[in-house]
Amino acid sequence: MRASLTTSNPSREPVKRRSFPVVPVVAAALPTLGDWLFGTRTEGDRDLIEELFFTDNKLRPHPVAPGLVATRLSSGRVDPGELAFARQGFPVAVLLRADGDALGRAIGNEISKGGKPQPWAFDLWVSDSDEGNRLSQTATTLEKRARFVVEHLAKPWAAQQLASAREAFAKEGIYVQACLFSPDRIALGLLPAHRAPSLAPGGRLRVHIDDDAPSRAAAKLAEAFLWLGRAPEPQDVCVDLGAAPGGWSYVLLQHRAKVYAVDRGKLAPNLRNQKNLEHIPADAFHFNPGDPVDWLCCDMAWRPLEVAGLLARWARRGWARHLIVNFKLPMKKKAEHLFRIRDILSDGGWSSLRARQLYHDRDEVTIAGVRI
């Protein structure tokens, strides 16, 4: 890579200005059969409701409880597609009282509708909220009892049960989910594991990072690679924009990539002598890689639309093949910003864009894409 610096600010790309309708505030209501039930991060309900409405204004999403949103899909849609602010979700097939025996019987009935037994996994989860977390112990008890009932009432299917949704995904199986959305009510549904928004219970994919990682940002990138199902190969060339103190560079080095860490700030001491890392003390907005790289990685605490403009320039110039970026979103109108960011990236030449507010994200969203 022949790095160089530019003197102008290249981030100010033309911004497509789409209009966004006013999303009505709707009172909380219980889910009904046929609804999709989604879990969000804490206080993320409104962001998901706005994202659903902007995606399809025929949808009428509504809150169910803190951290839970439900909607009926419009005619012709079999699933809602990938949603950034939905951690987890499933179509509601059964609503029942919070009783382990009743839940076990309902699971047995639903999976048996699939005909010949096939690989499947089951999780019961609660919302990521104070109210939901108070139900965690109850959920654990209900799940244990339900598994016992399934094992004794649906033995051919019980023999096919797997330990996790990730295993069901690997074997092209079914993911059965239940959500305890109030102290006495459960929603149950199932779908092919490959169509689930997440393979972690409730979408809470906790990633362990070594204690010597320079920052908690390392967990965000490690989770992002698990979500994507791909990561840099050994000796791939990666540029880490806004690298300091080096959380993302640390993860990239674990994948044995060649890393150029671009930041005026200092890197953590344990990164400074890594043979596959070069620190370039420069402003990310004025950095030119010279030669195309395999991965453009970016975790900059800066205005999201300006960062999107910078990354669009990278695609337009053909400077990178893969993109993974974490955007810091404003406190309000997160969904609007997400749509504007995707417009800018798409106009720049990034394709196959995917967006998700990961478990280790806070007021942020992670976006990935490729340049064809």
Structural features:
single chain, 372 residues, alpha/beta, VC0802-like, Rossmann fold, 7-stranded mixed β-sheet, 4-stranded antiparallel β-sheet, 10 helices, 17 strands
Describe this structure in words.
The protein has two domains: 36-203, 2-Layer Sandwich (VC0802-like), CATH 3.30.2130.30; 206-370, Rossmann fold, CATH 3.40.50. The chain is 28% helix and 24% strand. The chain has helices at 45-55, 100-112, 130-133, 136-153, 155-158, 165-170, 217-228, 247-254, 304-317, 334-348; strands spanning 4-5, 36-39, 62-65, 68-71, 88-91, 94-97, 120-125, 174-182, 185-192, 237-241, 258-262, 277-280, 287-288, 293-298, 320-328, 351-356, 364-370. The strands form four sheets. The chain has a seven-stranded mixed β-sheet with strand order 12-11-10-14-15-17-16, with helices on both faces. A four-stranded antiparallel β-sheet has the order 3-4-2-5, covered by helices on one side. The chain has a four-stranded mixed β-sheet with strand order 6-9-8-7. Helix 2 (100-112) crosses helix 4. It is globular.
H/E topology pattern: EEHEEEEHEHHHHEEHEHEEEEHEHEE
> Any idea what the CATH architecture of the largest domain is?
2-Layer Sandwich
Q: Could you describe the largest sheet, including whether it forms a barrel?
A: 7 strands, mixed
**CATH fold-level assignment of the largest domain:** VC0802-like
SS-based class:
alpha/beta
Instruction: Give the DSSP E fraction (strand runs of 2 or more residues).
Output: 15-25%
- Low confidence ranges: none
Measure the end-to-end span.
Answer: 20 Å
Helical fraction equals 25-40%
Q: In total, how many domains does the architecture comprise? A: 2
